C-alpha cells in the first residue's frame, strides 16, 4: 500500500469503531480512493466517533470535482449554486454529502474591510479545507484506508481537553459568520464540552453581529439548540453570554426579572431534554417553541380578554426578527390561548381540533416539570405534528357554495 504524505498534518493512529461508521459512507470514500482521488470522512462524524457518540450524518471531503463524483456514482445529484457539491443517494432516503476540498476566500475575494463571508466557491486542497472550517473539533479528517486521523488545526488536543475552540482568531471567525456563535453554544451543550476563555470572550463581544446574519439560519440554529437533548444548558449559555438579548430579548428580560430561586423555565427545558433522550428523537418544533416562550407569552396574555390577539401581538416581533415560519407561529398562538383551559381539564371544542394533542403534551411537560400529576396521555403523531396537521386541515377546507340569486 502506498502511504500518502500529509504536509503539515499531525497524524494520529486511530481505529475508530467500524460498527458506528455508516457502510454507505465508507463505500463512497473507498470508491473515490480506488479511482485515484483523496477522500476522507470529515467534520462532525469524526468528532462524534472520537468522543464515542453515534453520528447522525456522515460527510465526505474529496479532491474529486463535483462532475467527477457524479460520473462515479449514478445514484447521485449535484446541488448548490454558491458552492456545488454532490448528494450520493441510498435507500431509505439516506444522503451522503460529498464535497470537493475548498479554501477560504482571499482578501481580494471578500468585500473590502467587511469580513462577512458571502462566497466561498473556491476549490482547494485538504489542508485548506480543514483550515476554513469553524471549530478545531470539526476540522479533523479520518483516513479509512490507513486508519489515521489527520489534524491540521489542533483539533485532537481540544477533543482530549473537551474544549470548543475556533480555528484562528475567534472574533474574526464570528464576524465572518455570526451563526458560529450559536454553533459554539450547541457543541458545548450537546457534547458537554467547555468553551475556551478566548472564544467565550469573543462570543460576548461579537454577539451583536448576529443581527447581520440571515434570519432563517438564526431560527434554524435556535431550533437546533432545543432539539439536541441539551436545551437546558444551551439556553442557559445563550442567556449568560448575552446572545439571548439579541435573539429573544423578551425571554432574556423575563429570565432576568425572575427571582433567584425561580428556575421554572430551566426545569421545563430539563423535561424537554429528558423526553428527547427517551424518544431518541426531537420533540415537535411547535412544542419546543411554545415551551421556550410560554413564560413571557403568558405574561403578555395575562388579563387580556382576547388571548389569541395578545399572543399575536407578542409573537409578531419575534416572527419579524427571526423569520419564524407561520406554520410554527400560528399554532403557538392558539396553544398559548387555550393552554390554561387544558391545564384545568376543560378542552371543550378545542379537544376535537388537530392541535389538541400538541397542547396536551405541552401541559404534560409543565406538569412533569412542576412535580404535579401529568394530564392523561393522548395519541400523538410524530414529526412536524402541528404544522402538518394544520396544513392538511387547511387543504380539507372548502369554500361554502354561494347561494344563487333568485
Structure, briefly:
By secondary structure, this protein is an alpha+beta fold. It folds into three domains: 1-161, Beta Polymerase, domain 2, CATH 3.30.460.10; 164-247, Hydrophobic Seed Protein (Orthogonal Bundle), CATH 1.10.110; 253-396, no CATH class.
**For the residues shown, what is the average pLDDT?**
85
Overall tally of structural domains: 3
The shape is elongated
Judging by the overall fold, what is the CATH architecture of the largest domain? 2-Layer Sandwich
What is the secondary structure topology, with strand pairs?
Elements: E1 10-13, H1 23-34, E2 39-42, H2 44-50, E3 59-62, H3 66-72, E4 76-79, E5 85-89, E6 95-100, H4 126-131, E7 140-143, E8 148-151, H5 155-161, E9 163-164, H6 170-176, H7 179-191, E10 194-195, H8 197-206, H9 215-227, H10 231-241, H11 243-247, H12 249-257, H13 264-279, H14 285-301, H15 307-322, H16 326-343, H17 356-370, H18 385-396
Parallel strand pairs: 3-6, 9-10
Antiparallel strand pairs: 1-8, 2-3, 2-7, 4-5, 5-6, 7-8
Helix pairs in contact: 6-8, 7-9, 7-10, 10-13, 13-14, 13-17, 14-15, 14-16, 14-17, 15-16, 16-17
Question: What does this entry look like structurally?
Answer:
There is one protein chain. With 406 residues, this protein is α+β, with helices and mostly antiparallel strands. Strands 1-8-7-2-3-6-5-4 form an eight-stranded mixed sheet. It has a two-stranded parallel sheet with strand order 9-10. The N and C termini lie far apart (90 Å). The longest helix has 18 residues, at 326-343. It has helices at residues 23-34, 44-50, 66-72, 126-131, 155-161, 170-176, 179-191, 197-206, 215-227, 231-241, 243-247, 249-257, 264-279, 285-301, 307-322, 326-343, 356-370, 385-396; strands at residues 10-13, 39-42, 59-62, 76-79, 85-89, 95-100, 140-143, 148-151, 163-164, 194-195. The protein has three domains: 1-161, Beta Polymerase, domain 2; 164-247, Hydrophobic Seed Protein; 253-396, no CATH class. Strand 5 and strand 6 form a beta hairpin. It is 50% helix and 10% strand. Helix 14 (285-301) packs across helix 16 (326-343).
Amino acid at each position: 500500500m502506498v502511504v500518502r504524505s500529509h504536509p503539515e498534518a499531525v497524524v494520529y493512529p486511530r481505529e475508530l469503531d467500524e460498527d458506528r461508521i455508516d457502510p454507505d459512507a465508507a463505500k463512497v470514500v473507498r470508491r473515490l480512493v480506488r479511482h485515484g482521488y483523496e477522500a476522507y470522512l470529515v467534520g462532525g462524524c469524526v468528532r462524534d466517533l472520537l468522543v464515542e457518540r453515534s453520528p447522525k450524518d456522515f460527510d465526505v471531503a474529496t479532491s474529486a470535482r463535483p462532475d467527477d463524483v457524479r460520473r462515479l456514482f449514478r445514484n447521485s445529484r449535484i446541488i448548490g449554486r454558491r458552492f456545488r457539491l454532490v448528494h450520493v443517494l441510498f435507500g431509505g432516503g439516506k444522503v451522503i454529502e460529498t464535497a470537493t476540498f475548498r479554501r477560504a476566500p482571499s482578501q481580494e475575494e471578500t468585500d473590502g474591510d467587511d469580513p462577512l463571508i458571502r462566497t466561498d466557491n473556491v476549490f482547494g486542497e485538504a489542508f485548506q479545507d480543514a483550515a476554513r472550517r469553524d471549530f478545531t473539533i470539526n476540522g479533523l479528517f479520518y483516513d479509512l484506508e490507513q486508519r489515521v486521523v489527520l489534524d491540521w488545526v489542533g483539533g485532537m488536543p481540544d477533543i482530549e481537553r473537551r474544549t470548543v475552540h475556533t480555528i484562528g482568531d475567534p472574533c474574526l471567525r464570528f464576524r465572518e459568520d455570526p451563526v458560529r456563535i450559536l454553533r459554539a453554544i450547541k457543541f458545548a451543550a450537546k457534547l458537554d464540552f467547555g468553551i475556551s476563555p478566548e472564544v467565550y470572550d469573543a462570543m460576548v463581544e461579537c454577539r451583536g453581529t448576529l443581527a447581520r446574519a440571515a434570519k432563517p439560519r438564526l431560527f434554524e440554529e435556535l431550533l437546533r439548540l432545543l432539539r439536541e437533548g441539551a436545551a437546558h444548558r444551551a439556553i442557559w449559555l445563550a442567556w449568560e453570554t448575552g446572545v439571548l438579548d439579541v435573539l429573544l430579548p423578551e425571554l432574556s428580560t423575563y429570565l432576568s426579572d425572575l427571582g433567584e430561586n425561580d428556575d421554572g423555565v430551566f426545569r421545563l427545558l430539563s423535561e424537554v431534554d429528558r423526553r428527547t433522550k427517551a424518544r431518541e428523537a426531537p420533540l415537535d418544533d411547535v412544542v419546543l417553541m411554545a415551551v421556550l416562550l410560554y413564560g413571557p407569552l403568558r405574561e403578555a396574555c395575562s388579563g387580556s380578554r382576547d388571548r389569541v390577539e395578545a399572543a399575536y401581538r407578542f409573537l409578531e416581533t419575534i416572527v419579524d426578527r427571526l423569520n419564524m415560519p407561520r406554520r410554527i407561529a400560528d399554532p403557538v398562538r392558539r396553544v398559548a390561548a387555550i393552554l390554561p383551559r387544558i391545564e384545568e381539564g376543560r378542552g371543550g371544542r378545542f379537544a376535537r381540533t388537530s392541535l389538541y394533542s400538541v397542547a396536551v403534551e405541552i401541559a404534560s411537560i409543565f406538569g412533569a416539570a412542576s412535580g404535579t400529576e401529568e394530564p392523561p396521555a393522548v395519541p400523538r403523531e410524530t414529526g412536524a405534528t402541528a404544522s402538518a396537521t394544520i396544513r392538511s386541515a387547511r387543504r380539507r377546507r372548502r369554500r361554502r357554495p354561494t347561494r344563487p340569486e333568485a
